[in-house]
């Protein structure tokens, strides 16, 4: 036990740490019962997000030491810069405990309650009072954060949102066309940044911009038996859970498109307040930043591999589509029994009705890639590390059992990835395909930036499909599993291998709504015969 605590508590031996601190670390959402990030802070991984820029946009902002009196006695959180919308923040103005808690999840350097990526550079912008501010100012703030660090920000956290009641469109619905939603999808693509958005939490919540296509929407889990493995009851239920017509489109994406991508811990989380006192918090606000900061850990790994010129590695590792595919594909669904056939997954995640992923429509219906409540499963950043560290592999030669890729495909075409080794009967295969909706800025003054008063053009989503096929299959035959949604910007396969044999992964570009060439990211994890 002492040995385990040594790495959990940042190298402190268990003997010099008080019992309450030990208890809080064991309960930590960052430990093995949560997202398993603390393991990555320690040797041999040594990943804390060094030099990686991430962002935060909220109504208020965290206090900055040396700038705001509210945090004059608390140096736990170090910020790269704070802003009011797209200008500098005013000292002692707009400081908000909620924003400070969210920042702490990401970059706290407190020994007892560390953040997911304590070494990352966090840029935070406050939109300001909601009385006079709305989606245009929120978009301006997000863009300003995306342009920091010489335009190299890898992920941006939204632990806030807009109610549809404030949207100026007549009879507004979650159709992807609110200004802020369009802004998130545009910025994600143009600034190459992954947006992590706090999922909607119940009737009359903050649904905009949870109808985005290019980011990751996060629901939150609570503990059962000490393990974060249940979608918390406060999350809004899925579209198939007896939703009335009155709520459809107002609380859920129209047309059945799934809103949740991932689940992360968010119930009874210990965090530090600006005055340094402990605070217990609950909500998707504290789940989303775990995803944002997990990107910083992975990107530190990626930049390390680039620096040392590791084989099967390129700057594609920085792309937001790759991060999305890696995080979703490595998520925990069904606990592995120890034989590796379920890809070493560490927990069985259940929804609010106590159903697991194998009981979901997403598992049974190839047209539904993600579960309405669980998305692709529960964030596990150590598994994401394993997925990402496997490297980039091109379809021109046989690929290993675990890996990822980023490339383009032409309409009507297919790209095949032949797995080098036969897959084991009874084992599961996880494959995730991610690509962007094409949103363009109507840039009236041609300054290549969004300005208040400008708007966006939705050019739609190209339709890509994903298959696991037998290696000797011809063009349309031999399909073992498929993900063929016509409305989602992600395809996801999690299926068992019925017979030992050789297989290949196929990406197909069915029809185009915009360009005839589509960039995509692919991540896969399978179990070969040794």
Please outline what is shown here.
With 530 residues, this protein is of the alpha/beta class. It has 11 helices and 21 strands. Helix 4 (97-107) runs parallel beside helix 8 (288-307), helix 5 (135-146) runs parallel beside helix 7 (179-190) and helix 9 crosses helix 11 (381-389).
Helical residues, percent: 10-25%
Radius of gyration, in Å, reads: 22 Å
Our count of helices gives 11
Largest sheet: 9 strands, mixed
Low-confidence stretches: 1-21, 240-245
Mean pLDDT reading: 91
- The quaternary organization reads as single chain
Overall body shape: globular
| Class from helix and strand fractions | alpha/beta
Q: What percentage of the residues does DSSP assign to strands (E)?
A: 15-25%
Distance between the termini: 33 Å
What is the strand tally? 21
